[in-house]
Design brief:
Strand content: under 5%
Structural class: mainly alpha
Length: about 400
C-alpha cells in the first residue's frame, strides 16, 4: 500500500541524486554570489561545477530520467530559436571581425556557457524540492551583507585597486539581478517578511557602495514589479513593445540629438557619447547592417580605434558588433521574453518581468554584454528561475495530494 510512497527513501540512487542536486544548487545559489565579492574569477569555476552537479543530480533522479528527451520541444520555442539565431550570427561575424583571435575564444566560451545552462535547465527534475529554493535567498542575503560590510569598513575599496573595484561592482550587479528569483522563491512560499528583509538588504548594499547602475536597475525592476503585480500579461506586452523599440531605434536617437547639443561639450559629461555614436552611424555605411564583428567594440575601444567617450552597454555593442540583423534578433528576443514572462503561470510572472527589466537596465546603463562574466551571470539567473518555478510546482502538487488524503512522495 505504501510501497510507492516510500520508494525514494529505499532507493540509494535517488538519495544520492537528491544530494548531488542540492550541492549543485548550493554552489550556484550561495557560492557564486558570495565568491563574487572576493574574486571575479571564481565565477567561471563555480558556474560549470554547479551546473554539472545539477545535470548529474537531475539525470539520476527518478523524475529526471529521460528529461533530455524534452530538448527537442524546448529547442522549438521562439525564445530558444531567436537565441540560436543570435549565436549563429555572432559566430558568422567572426569571419569579418578585426580581432579574430580573442573574438573566437570569447565566442566559444560564451556559447559554451549558454549550452551548459540550457542542459542544466532541461536536466532538472520536473518537480524540485521546494526547500532547494531556500538556498538562493540565503546566498543573496549573505552576499548583500558582505558587500555592505566591505562598503562600511573599507569605503574606499574601489580606489585601492582596479581589481577590487571591479569585484565589488560585479558582485553588486549580480546580487541585484539574482535578488528577483530569490524574492520569488520566498513569496511563492508565503514568506513575505523574509522577502522584504532581503529586498531592503539589497537596496541598502547598493546605496552603501553607491553604484548608480545597480540602483537604477533596482528602481526600474521595483517599478516593473509593482506594475506587473496586478496585470502581468498587460505589463509583459507593454514592456515587450518598449524594449523592442528602444533596441531598434537606438542609433537614431544620437543622430537626432547631436544637432541640439552645444559645439563644446564637457569631456567627462554624459552627453559626449551622442556625437561619438552619431559619427559612427554616419561613417559605418554597410556596417550598419552586418556590424563590425563579434567582440569588436570592446577591442576597438581598448586599442584606441574608438575614442574614450564611446558609449558602453548593450545598445551600442549590439549595433556596432552585429549590426541591424543582430539588433533585430535581440529586439525579437526581448519581445518574446517579456511576453512569455507575463504569461508565466502562477505568481512568478511579476518576478520574471522585474528580473528582465533589471537585466535590460543594467545592459543599457553600460555593462558590456560581450563580457563572459555577464553571460555567465545571466545563465545562472535562468537556472535559478527554473529551480524556483519547479520547486513551486512540487509544493503545489504536494498540497493537492494532502487534500485528497494521499501521502505525498517527498
Amino acid at each position: 500500500m505504501f510501497g510507492n510512497s516510500f520508494r525514494n527513501f529505499d532507493d540509494p540512487a535517488a538519495e544520492a541524486a537528491s544530494l548531488i542536486l542540492r550541492l549543485g544548487i548550493a554552489i550556484l545559489s550561495i557560492g557564486v554570489p558570495c565568491a563574487a565579492v572576493l574574486s571575479r574569477r571564481l565565477l567561471f569555476v563555480l558556474m560549470p561545477v554547479g551546473a554539472a552537479l545539477v545535470v548529474i543530480g537531475g539525470l539520476l533522479s527518478p523524475e529526471g530520467r529521460g528529461r533530455l528527451d524534452h530538448l527537442r520541444t524546448m529547442t522549438l520555442s521562439p525564445i530558444v530559436l531567436v537565441t540560436l539565431f543570435l549565436v549563429f550570427w555572432a559566430g558568422l561575424s567572426l569571419v569579418w571581425t578585426p580581432f579574430a583571435g580573442p573574438a573566437v575564444e570569447r565566442f566559444l566560451k560564451s556559447a559554451g556557457t549558454v549550452l551548459v545552462a540550457a542542459v542544466a535547465i532541461v536536466a532538472l527534475p520536473e518537480r524540485v524540492k521546494a526547500s532547494n529554493s531556500n538556498l538562493l535567498p540565503i546566498g543573496v542575503a549573505a552576499a548583500a551583507l558582505a558587500i555592505a560590510c566591505v562598503g562600511l569598513i573599507a569605503p574606499f575599496a574601489q580606489r585601492a585597486g582596479e581589481d577590487n573595484g571591479a569585484n565589488l561592482q560585479r558582485a553588486m550587479i549580480g546580487v541585484v539581478v539574482l535578488a528577483w528569483p530569490a524574492l520569488g522563491a520566498l513569496v511563492l512560499r508565503h514568506r513575505i517578511a523574509a522577502a522584504g528583509g532581503i529586498a531592503v538588504a539589497v537596496a541598502l548594499a547598493s546605496v552603501i557602495v553607491w553604484m548608480p547602475n545597480a540602483i537604477a536597475a533596482l528602481i526600474v525592476a521595483m517599478l516593473t514589479f509593482s506594475m506587473a503585480y496586478s496585470s502581468p500579461v498587460l505589463a509583459g506586452r507593454a514592456l515587450a513593445l518598449a524594449s523592442a523599440v528602444i533596441i531598434l531605434a537606438a542609433p537614431v536617437f544620437p543622430v537626432l540629438v547631436q544637432p541640439m547639443l552645444p559645439a563644446r561639450l564637457d569631456p567627462e559629461g554624459a552627453f559626449v557619447i551622442f556625437p561619438v555614436w552619431a559619427q559612427v552611424v554616419k561613417l559605418d555605411g554597410l556596417r550598419l547592417i552586418t556590424g563590425h564583428g563579434f567582440d569588436s567594440a570592446v577591442r576597438a575601444l581598448e586599442s584606441g580605434y574608438l575614442p574614450p567617450a564611446t558609449p558602453r552597454g548593450v545598445l551600442f555593442e549590439v549595433w556596432y558588433e552585429l549590426g541591424l540583423l543582430g539588433a533585430a534578433g535581440l529586439a525579437t528576443l526581448a519581445w518574446h521574453s517579456f511576453r512569455a514572462a507575463g504569461r508565466a503561470a502562477g505568481p512568478i510572472a511579476p518576478f520574471l518581468l522585474a528580473a528582465l527589466s533589471c537585466i535590460l537596465t543594467v545592459g543599457v546603463a553600460g555593462v558590456s554584454v560581450a563580457q563572459l562574466w555577464w553571460v555567465t551571470l545571466l545563465a545562472i539567473v535562468a537556472i535559478c528561475f527554473a529551480i524556483v518555478m519547479r520547486g513551486h510546482q512540487r509544493d503545489h502538487h504536494v498540497q493537492a495530494r494532502a487534500i485528497t488524503g494521499q501521502r505525498p512522495v517527498l
